[in-house]
Amino acid sequence: MTRTQLIEKLSLTKQFDIIIIGGGATGLGAAVDAATRGYSTLLLEQDDFAKGTSSRSTKLVHGGVRYLQQGNIKLVMDALKERGVLKKNAPHIVKNQSFIVPNYKWWEGPYYGLGLKVYDWMSGSLGLGNSEWLSTEEVLERAPTLDPDGLKGGVIYHDGQFDDARLAINLAQTAVEYGAVVLNRFKVTGLLKVNGKIVGVGARDMETGFTYEIQSKSVINATGVFSDSIQQMDEPGKETSITPSQGIHIVLDKEFLPGSAAIMIPDTDDGRVLFAVPWHNKIIVGTTDTAVETIADEPYALPEEIDFILQHASRYLTKDPGYNDIRSIFAGLRPLVKSSAKKTAEVSRDHSILLADSGLISIVGGKWTTYRKMAEDVVNTAAIQGGLPYKDCITTTTLIHGAMEVTDFEEEGYYYGTDRSSINDLIISHPELGLQLHPSLPYTAAEIVWAVKNEWCLTLDDALSRRTRALLLDAKAAIEIAPVVATLMAEELKKDKHWISEQLLSFNTVAQNYLPKQL
After folding, report:
1. Angle at 93 between CA 87 and CA 99, to 5 degrees
2. Backbone angles phi, psi at 332, to 5 degrees
3. Is the bond into 287 cis (omega within 30 degrees of 0)?
4. Residue 24 and residue 371: Cα distance in Å, rounded?
5. Is 231 helix (H, G, I), strand (E, B) or coil?
6. CA terminus-to-terminus distance, the chain
7. What does each of the 519 residues of the chain score in pLDDT, given as a tens digit?
8. What is the CA radius of gyration of the chain?
9. Number of CB atoms found within 10 A of residue 283's CB
10. Greatest CA span in the chain, whole angstroms?
11. CA angle 53, 488, 421 (to 5 degrees)
């Protein structure tokens, strides 16, 4: 359905069973869960789907080896189960990724090897492959750019890898296919109350400026790092529930880690795990864990964070990456549940559901891998709170839009799944749309047109950051193709030259934070 059709459906609905505020992983998961149960569902996102944290992850669907080290067995067990469920329900997005843990000390092989055998065992029937000890020669065969000096072998294990923003779009499409109304660029401006109880929300369409008062039996606050702002809208002066933490990643060319294996460094100077992961023919290296006080719409990497990643990468790779090798830098904020822990790396990634006296339901914490379980838990709460008839959750077996088996994850556009053929048809009918937009990026004009027509792509940033991942893969190249992409979008959206100029100014301002700048 088009955005216009969804707004018409919104206008015709007198009362929703559930309204969800926030279009990240948790909110979109909740929309799919609620809609598949048959509840009338509305999701409102003030910017774009997965605009914040949910498009800035390490691109892993994983149990969390670090959480196993910390002894958080329940979180690991839940995450490993959800990893397997997501691999089955979105096989076009989630793939099996091998990881190598290189050993440079005599004790690391037995220590990490045994730990990863436990990880295998905890995966049960949903495991992606058994871990194995590797000789030095076998490690270098799989990861030839690892520093061989002092290398004593390694351990290989398996986890999941995915494209976070693409999955978010597919979740939005799935929710709509099951009857939900899902709208981006729709800001909640207030909470409607009767006798102190929430009965709906006030909202503004950021595209038209029109305002709405929307009735609902229950309201879920799934706004991630912005959760406190909604809770304080409900209860001014309320104590905060979020401890924000920033994580950054740098993106390098594939030459720094050729082959298909990823690298996991289990112990860094700040106690975090560091990953170097192949992704869309690039390498993502991260992440950091920096406590922050300000929750920004567009967080940016600090120089010391970039240096931290470069220094650690240089310890393990034969070619030391520098600022000139960075193709893009992206930063995201983690919505960690407030804790007394001294370091954010120690704060639990478990989720919590908070129920206010007004009936507002807030879900905080969690991570992408467990989004489906989080959604199930919060919809269960919303059903009780809203007096809705009990209905079983069915998302463990619900296929996500685009689901199909992929045999070649190196093929361009594999992540579109069943939509890939429709994009190819678009190119057949309009051959000019098949032209590659930039030699350093895999995208064509057809994917931009498709995004505008079928994926609620409304801004240049939507197109280059989340419908395609151009900005994350190569920020300089993304800036270079921005005028062409803006012109394509303007034609589809019936916008004028003034709109193009505004979009270019806005996008270029954001994109500057993704470019490496050595001070």
Report:
1. 70
2. -140, 160
3. yes
4. 10
5. helix
6. 47
7. 999 999 999 999 999 999 999 999 999 999 999 999 999 999 999 999 999 999 999 999 998 777 766 667 788 888 999 999 999 999 999 999 999 999 999 888 898 899 899 888 988 888 899 999 999 999 999 999 999 999 999 999 999 999 999 999 999 999 999 999 999 999 999 999 999 999 999 999 999 999 999 999 999 999 999 999 999 999 999 999 888 899 999 999 999 999 899 999 887 877 778 999 999 999 999 989 898 888 999 999 999 999 999 999 999 999 999 999 999 999 999 988 875 444 444 444 578 999 999 999 999 998 999 999 999 999 999 999 999 999 999 999 999 999 999 999 999 999 999 999 999 999 999 999 999 999 999 999 999 999 999 999 999 999 999 999 999 999 999 999 999 999 999 999 999 999 999 999 999 999 999 998 854
8. 23
9. 27
10. 71
11. 75
Task: Count CB neighbours of 453 within 10 A.
Answer: 14
User: In the numeric block, which tokens belong to residue 105?
Assistant: 């000390």
Residue 488 and residue 445 in contact, taking contact as beta carbons nearer than 8 Å? yes
* CB distance 313 to 102 below 8 Å: no
| Domains of the chain, start order | 3-53+165-241+347-385 (3.50.50.60), 89-162+243-345 (3.30.9.10), 414-514 (1.10.8.870)
Angle at 483 between CA 482 and CA 487, to 5 degrees: 115
Residue type, 406: V
Q: What is the amino acid identity at position 107?
A: W
**Residue tagged 């002894």 (tokens):** 71
Residue reference for tokens 């709208």: 183
Chain-centre distance for alpha carbon 182: 18
Residue 229 and residue 54: Cα distance in Å, rounded? 18
Helices and strands, counts by H and E, the chain:
16, 18
Strand stretches in 369-481, DSSP E:
none
Task: Go through 54-66 and write b for each residue having 16 or more CB atoms within 10 A of its CB, e for each that does not.
Answer: bbbbbbbbbbbbb
Structure tokens at 436: 């590659």
- Using CA atoms, how far apart are residues 480 and 293, in angstroms rounded to an integer? 34
* Cα 30 to Cα 253: distance, rounded to the nearest angstrom: 36
Structure tokens at 424: 């190819």
Give the DSSP letter of residue 145: T
Question: How are beta strands 197-205 and 186-194 bridged, if at all?
Answer: antiparallel
In 162-211, which ranges are continuous DSSP H helix? 164-177
CA pair distance 257, 241, nearest whole angstrom: 40
**CB hemisphere CA count around 309 (13 angstroms):** 32
CA–CA distances in Å: residue 354 to residues 241, 419, 497: 9, 38, 46
**Phi, psi for 248 (deg, rounded to 5):** -120, 160
- Alpha carbon distance 83, 85 (integer Å): 6
